[in-house]
Amino acid sequence: MTTAEQLATRSSTPACDDGVCGAAGMTVPDSERTAAVFKALADPVRLRLYSRIAATGGETCVCDIQDVGVSQPTVSHHLRKLRDAGLIDCERRGTWVYYWAVPGALGPLASVLDAHTQLITR
Amino acid sequence: MTTAEQLATRSSTPACDDGVCGAAGMTVPDSERTAAVFKALADPVRLRLYSRIAATGGETCVCDIQDVGVSQPTVSHHLRKLRDAGLIDCERRGTWVYYWAVPGALGPLASVLDAHTQLITR
């Protein structure tokens, strides 16, 4: 199970809405799962790669996302980090690997941000 | 101007809604500003500190957020990172420093997540 999948499972449980447990704030397990996915998005190159893949709305050939200003091995490294976090997935077909953004993977992160925004502005 | 303030300013400009510029995805400057704020939230201890401060809905004495499982100097280090990113601010009063979550600082991040979620599910 990827980090994003764990986060989605956790967010669907009823205890502590959106991982924010009253005045105590986030629990240790929730903070660890959520921080891991934020970390995947905490690099400008990874964020541009993710954005490029998501922006297609479908599959993207790795051959079309090599122009983000870093070497091909670095692109591969960042794509692996995004995949390990459960934000993207891929499939090899012949010479090329095709990537897509995993639907729903950003939802739990958005819920955490929304829950905290509501706490701040209440 | 903090990173979160730069991000809020950028997000209010009309070009490229939410920093997602069509099929090209995020621009380099947008990805750098956004990744910097994600990075501030990409650590479990920082996330719990931020959550604890936000959960009060007001000010939190630093004396009340020392029990996150790390040493006091490490707490101070993480609070500085959150402050540098523009997510929290503080004021010293006598012996103690009081922290609060900056209203609106999470908004641009939430917009980026929402914009990409819409791209993926369209």
UniProtKB/TrEMBL annotation, chains A, B:
GO terms for molecular function: DNA binding; DNA-binding transcription factor activity. It comes from the Bacteria. The keyword DNA-binding applies. It comes from Nakamurella aerolata. Residues 26-121 form the HTH arsR-type domain. Keywords: DNA-binding, Transcription, Transcription regulation. CDD domains: HTH_ARSR. This is Helix-turn-helix transcriptional regulator. It holds the Pfam family HTH_5. Signal peptide: none annotated.
